[in-house]
Amino acid sequence: MFLCHVVGTWLNEQRHYYYPGFREHFRYPWRKRVLEEEVEIMAEIEQEERQTYMYFQDRSREFGFNGLSLLHRLNPLYQFDILNDTVFDAMHLLPLNVVKNHFSKLLSGEVMDERELACKLKQMPWTTDYKSSRLPNDLEGIGYWKAEEYQKLAFPASEFVLSGLLSEDEYTVWAPVPRLVEFVFNAGRDGWTEDMIQKFKCLSWRYCILMEEHYGTQACVVNLHNLIHFHEDISRFSAPDNYWCTQFERAVSRYVQQSSNRKYLEKTFARKESQREFLKFQQSAGHLDAGRPSRSPKFNREKVTYCTIVHSMGLSVSVYLQLINIYFLLFVSLLNFFV
Ligand SMILES: [Zn+2]
Q1: Distance, CA 2 to ligand 1 centroid (Å)?
Q2: Residues 100 and 197 occupy one common structural domain
Q3: Which domain holds residue 22?
Q4: 232, exposed or middle or buried, with CB in 10 Å at 0-12, 13-18, 19+?
Q5: The pTM is what?
Q6: 20 to 30 A from 82, CA-CA: which of 42, 75, 132, 206?
Q7: Helix, strand, or coil here: 18?
Q8: Ligand 1 centroid, distance to 278 Cα (angstroms)
């Protein structure tokens, strides 16, 4: 991510900061933040003794930092730049933010017939691959939907279910989203070309500009702004599935199921994790040992048998060759004798 010096606009009705001006800033980009300048501010906030909630809130609003990040300790090691070398997570940015927010706007604004949408979702002809995991079939349970449902709703379902449901203007605003999701979760899984990255950049900017012009300043949340930086991560670090959080989120669902004493949760998890790591290590060590002599009697027996066969085969072949050699010498000497 490349963070820029954006100036937030405070809206009193929403009691929130917003970051508008996409059309203007596409042509005249915001100034990028430079680590050397920002580190001084981070350190100053870190060392400040008046650590009250109001103070932090004011400083956080003004500069966007709450102190000096621990990750900055990596900077002397290999020039790790906390502002530029960290990435946005595709799962949280696209399905759980852009798609979810847009759909909740559509559903709350009564711009489409909700019952017809539910009906069309049930009629969606899913392929076998998609059917193997979660599907956005049940619109009534939208409150329990995970990232996967929102992802599949955006692409491939939305173009099927929203056709005829949305007005032309609403559909024009929504149109870039299925392509963005398709790029990240489908086409991009086979690799990204420079052309794909440029198209993704244009789609992101188009979506942000249309959102601002259609829904106003209150649509310009910071996550919408982050979308315009997403292609920079892909340019620098390749496909987002190399570094997204999906697999870690799946591990979280496993941790939640883990029974614990409800007292020292961290300790319980830490112990279970160390046991799991140990078992994993033991299994991999078992694989590594497969080619070496082992102390277990069973393995020794196999090894001995194997060695004996190989050894005896080698011996018999050498004996056989020596016999041929002797017979050949005898034959040559007999020939000499008769001639
Ligand atoms: Zn920015």
Answers
A1: 6
A2: yes
A3: 9-78
A4: middle
A5: 0.71
A6: 206
A7: strand
A8: 43
C-alpha distances in angstroms, 306 versus 222, 302, 310? 66, 6, 6
CA torsion 320→322→323→329, rounded to 10°? Answer: 150
- Check whether residue 94 and residue 61 sit in a common domain: no
**Residue 187 and residue 46 share a domain:** no
Higher pLDDT, 178 or 18: 178
Look at residues 20, 51, 78 and tell me which one is the last residue of a structural domain.
78
Domain check: are 292 and 180 in the same one? no
CA of 3 to the centre of ligand 1 (A): 5
* CB distance 220 to 22 below 8 Å: yes
Mean pLDDT for the chain?
Answer: 80
Q: Give 123-139 pLDDT, tens digit per residue.
A: 889 998 888 888 998 88
Number of domains in the chain: 3
The verdict on residue 256 lying in a domain is no
What is the CA angle 264-265-268, rounded to 5?
A: 85
Based on the domain organization, do 95 and 216 belong to the same domain? yes
* d(CA 1, ligand 1 centre) in Å: 8
Ligand 1 centroid–CA 236 distance in Å is 16
Angle at 114 between CA 149 and CA 103, to 5 degrees: 45
207 and 136 in a single domain? The answer is yes
Taking the centre of ligand 1 as the mean of its atom positions, its distance from the CA of residue 102, in whole angstroms, is: 21
